[in-house]
Design brief:
Layout lengths: L3 E6 L3 E8 L4 E10 L5 H15 L7 E6 L2 E2 L5 E5 L4 E5 H9 L3 E5 H12 L8 E6 L3 E7 L2 E2 L30 H5 L1 H13 L5 H6 L7 H9 L3 H25 L3 E5 L1 H5 L1 H14 L9 E4 L6 H10 L4
Parallel strand pairs: 1-4, 4-8, 9-12, 12-13
Antiparallel strand pairs: 1-2, 2-3, 5-6, 6-7, 9-10, 10-11
Length: 313
Amino acid sequence: MVRTVGVDLGGTNVRAALVDPATGSIVGSEVKRPVTDKQPEAVADLVAEVVRAADPKGERSAVGVGFAAMLRGFTGVVVNSPNFGWREVDFRGLLRARLGEQVELYNDLKAIAYGEVRWGGSGEARHVCFVFVGTGVGAGLVVDGRLDFGASHLAGEYGHVKVVPGGRLCGCGQRGCLEAYTSGRNIQLRAVEELRAGATSRAVELAGAVDKVHAGHLDQAAREGDAYATRLWDEVSGHLGVALANLVTTLNPSRLVMGGGVWHGCPELRRRTIDVFHAQANRPSLEGFTLVDSQLGDIAGVLGAATLAGSLS
């Protein structure tokens, strides 16, 4: 029986599991570790550690790693990883030096999209967009039933469409990106910055300190009518809702699958975003269209990367 290890390497945690790529079933237990050191060598060591922990008997024939990064084709070179601050890093080379040649690197949202299509109930839909709003923001696209990599592996870099020309600095190095306004990491950075500068919010009381405020605290504060959180959520939901509406208007998918920690963990932001989306999307594009939550949750990237790696076996 062929077994592969799937790894989902995000900006906050890394997950891995030994998987039967023919059935999408996990063999054994999922392993999860926090990412505390974002230097390339340290991250490669961490990935090797979780792979070996997930596959203690060495049963794997290949390893697939979904990583939050812009990749240069299938070379394994990370051109830009906003959440890690990397530029031009041969990360696949670092991984292969630790785990052997049967290791492949994929964009994390492409792995998530593939996992959801194969094992999450979206397989019957031929045209699907997957958008995850978490530490960062990204998308995966399925066109005519096939995962779309784009001309140079960069299809779906949706977090880096511009919503405010010359706006807030994004981790990618440019300004005004959707991710700079709507990702968990950037929402937190902005809120802490503004609260330190004199803004007041119930979110600080909920968090216990200004530096501990995150999107979940802001969402609760907005639900309670807090003025600062409400104004911020009006802006964030406006950017995200319009961006999603434009995505659906442009690509005409039959389904938009939403996921990520911010999307699932902030019900008030989610409600506001959906309202904006329905108000702004092209009306004919909504005929026969559904917006649904991801079915697999945090394990989607692991299953997708492991299944993609099955082709290496």
